[in-house]
Amino acid sequence: MDDSVKKDRPDKLPKLVAAGHDTRAYSAREAWQLLAIMSEFVEATERLNQVRPAVSIFGSARTPQDHPYFTLAERTSRLLSDAGFTVISGGGPGIMEAANRGAFFGSSPAVGLNIELPREQFGNTYQDISLSFRHFFARKVTFVRFATAYVVMPGGFGTLDELTEALTLVQTGKTRKMPIILVHEPFWRGLLGWFRERLVSEGMIDADDMDLVQVHNEPEQVVETIFRHYENRAFIPSPAERETFLNL
């Protein structure tokens, strides 16, 4: 940049300090915050390293207990639990509670990854292992790192965020290829149509990328698809896959 232009630009730092913004104090707080984030990863690793194979289930926090989606999620989770999969969900209400509840009364552990939010989130009582997160991205990494498959129930922005995160990580090879299963085809029909009509047709993704996701309506189909995927490979990540997880 030309020195004359630099001289004409206002120096904002003195104004911030004069307004009561102590940048050194803020930097110190940031450093301590990084340690707090690291502690979330450490605790998750220590407590979940032995839960594999596990399936992460995503879905809306706003689904009431008398809704068909709640029942569908609970049935799916119970079948997965009885088939030997630890079920990891969000620990909150709605679909998360349904997923935790199905696993809690099944044969394998129910894990809740709780997030501190101003509203909507409160812990359900169906958690054999309960973890609490302040940071969304640490929680999202935990969902991915310990999963053998992703089961995505109907949900809102948070569910779509988790779905596209999973698709991106598998597509780019940042995590191993695993089943990503959408449950209840009528709910997902419009989104999948948009993927094909816009993302594929305009070259934003490859046509083969649509094969990363499968759609089922019945819990039994979900369990069967996961077992079929692992017929000729181990549930436990290989040494190479473990190295990949370190670079999430």
Main sheet properties: 7 strands, parallel
Q: What is the topology, as strand order, of the major beta sheet?
A: 4-3-2-1-5-6-7
Structural class: alpha/beta
Termini separation comes to: 36 Å
Written description of the protein model:
With 248 residues, the protein is of the alpha/beta class. It has 2 domains: 1-48; 52-245, Rossmann fold. It has 10 helices and 7 strands. The protein has helices at residues 3-8, 12-18, 23-48, 68-82, 95-104, 136-145, 157-171, 185-200, 219-229, 239-245; strands at 54-58, 86-89, 110-115, 129-133, 149-152, 180-183, 213-216. It has a 7-stranded parallel sheet, sandwiched between helices. Helix 4 links the parallel strand 1 (54-58) and strand 2 (86-89). The longest helix is centred in the N-terminal third of the chain and has 26 residues, at 23-48. It is globular, with a radius of gyration of 21 Å.
What secondary-structure arrangement, pairings included, does this model have?
Elements: H1 3-8, H2 12-18, H3 23-48, E1 54-58, H4 68-82, E2 86-89, H5 95-104, E3 110-115, E4 129-133, H6 136-145, E5 149-152, H7 157-171, E6 180-183, H8 185-200, E7 213-216, H9 219-229, H10 239-245
Summarize this structure as a short list of keywords or feature phrases:
single chain, 248 residues, alpha/beta, Rossmann fold, 2 domains, seven-stranded parallel sheet, 10 helices, 7 strands
